[in-house]
Write a structure and sequence with these properties.
Elements (H helix, E strand, L loop, with lengths): L14 H13 L4 H8 L3 H13 L15 H10 L4 E5 L1 H4 L8 H16 L5 E4 L3 H8 L8 E4 L15 H9 L4 E2 L10 H8 L2 H7 L7 E8 L6 H5 L2 H9 L4 E3 L2 E3 L19 H6 L2 E5 L5 H11 L4 E5 H8 L21
Parallel strand pairs: 1-9, 2-3, 2-5, 3-4, 5-8, 8-9
Antiparallel strand pairs: 5-6, 6-7
Helix pairs in contact: 1-3, 2-3, 4-15, 6-7, 7-8, 14-15
């Protein structure tokens, strides 16, 4: 693209025409010659418009390497815990032995592939907004038409800002569907404040969608700093108290002990999030967990019966399978666990 003489600035871009050309070239797989003929412009202008679409971020190009799946470990996890879906990423095959494996990008890539495979037209997909789903939704290109519902408030410097709900809007855009967001902190100072916020029209509208969710993607976090959004939102005294009561994991505001039992907290009535009964009633709940120490949290979540599927890394899967108290085979699923797919 040339520059205007004397100004040093690029000429304005016809955004609509650039987007039309980019859509035909990148999505419809039309050639530049075909596009030029259909739109009545030269193929050189088509090329300039494609360059302009990239330069002006009308088109964003992301090159990713598909995660390598350990099919054997994936099968063992499905059978052991009566799961419908288990995706285990072999990070040892992704990174040289001397390098630390970047767990999150690979789990996000694998999770995005699973969500893309499972999504069906008319689905209502539930999400928790955090770094895991932020990376995962970035890796999703396109979904069948469906809606996306945020399942909990957020933890961060600006829970009322648009950035806090970006994963929900991003996935809804990929599905060409409506996004139901929660512009609210996960934990409020007291039950009255939580009750008042829950009655705000936009928040109340999202809360009403919880019972419609058909598939959900939730991070599984350990009860530790950076592992659990609820842990990060609690006070130091609360963290110590709940750890003493057995807290080892958190899934969408649900605090679990190592056997998957719910640990009651005084935060329960001042949180904006899906409740345990509604979460367990969702037909498909995919938990994403991985990295150092994730096996304790994942084991607790699997024992809770909340999950129908998981995305994790090979080291975590091996440690979960070797944990004391897990069954040596896939028979007799734990009471309350979900049945395998037929």
């Amino acid at each position: 693209m040339t520059q205007d003489q004397g100004t040093g600035t690029a000429p304005p871009v016809d955004v609509l025409l650039a987007a039309t050309v980019a859509r035909r070239f990148y999505l419809a797989q039309q050639s530049k010659v075909e596009i030029a003929r259909d739109l009545g412009i030269s193929r050189f202008k088509v090329a300039r418009l494609l360059d302009a679409a990239v330069a002006n971020r009308i088109v964003r190009i992301d090159i990713s390497v598909p995660a390598q799946i350990d099919t054997g470990l994936s099968r063992r996890m499905r059978e052991r815990f009566a799961l419908r879906h288990a995706v285990v990423v072999d990070l040892a095959r992704e990174c040289p032995p001397a390098e630390a494996a970047p767990v999150l990008p690979w789990l996000a890539e694998a999770g995005a592939r699973l969500v893309t495979e499972l999504a069906r037209e008319g689905d209502v997909i539930g999400l928790v907004c955090d770094p895991v789903t932020d990376a995962l939704t970035t890796a999703v290109d396109r979904l069948p038409p469906c809606e996306v519902v945020q399942l909990s408030g957020t933890v961060g410097p600006d829970p009322f800002g648009e950035e806090a709900v970006a994963p929900v809007r991003r996935l809804a855009a990929a599905a060409d569907g409506r996004a139901f967001t929660l512009h609210t902190p996960l934990v409020l100072p007291n039950p009255l404040t939580a009750s008042i916020l829950a009655r705000q029209p936009s928040i109340a509208d999202t809360l009403r969608q919880f019972g419609r969710v058909t598939r959900a993607v939730v991070p599984v976090g350990g009860w530790e700093a950076g592992g659990s959004a609820l842990y990060d939102a609690s006070t130091p005294d609360e963290r110590t108290e709940y750890h003493a009561c057995g807290a080892r994991a958190e899934v969408c505001g649900l605090v679990l002990d190592e056997d998957g039992r719910t640990v009651p907290t005084d935060m329960d009535n001042r949180m904006i999030c899906v409740d345990a009964g509604t979460l367990r009633a969702v037909p498909e709940v995919i938990g994403v967990a991985g990295g150092a120490g994730a096996h304790t949290a994942l084991r607790a979540a699997l024992r809770s019966g909340c999950l129908s599927g998981i995305v994790t890394d090979a080291e975590t899967a091996v440690r979960v399978l070797r944990s004391p108290g897990t069954r040596p085979d896939g028979t007799a699923p734990r009471p309350g666990s979900r049945p395998p797919a037929r």
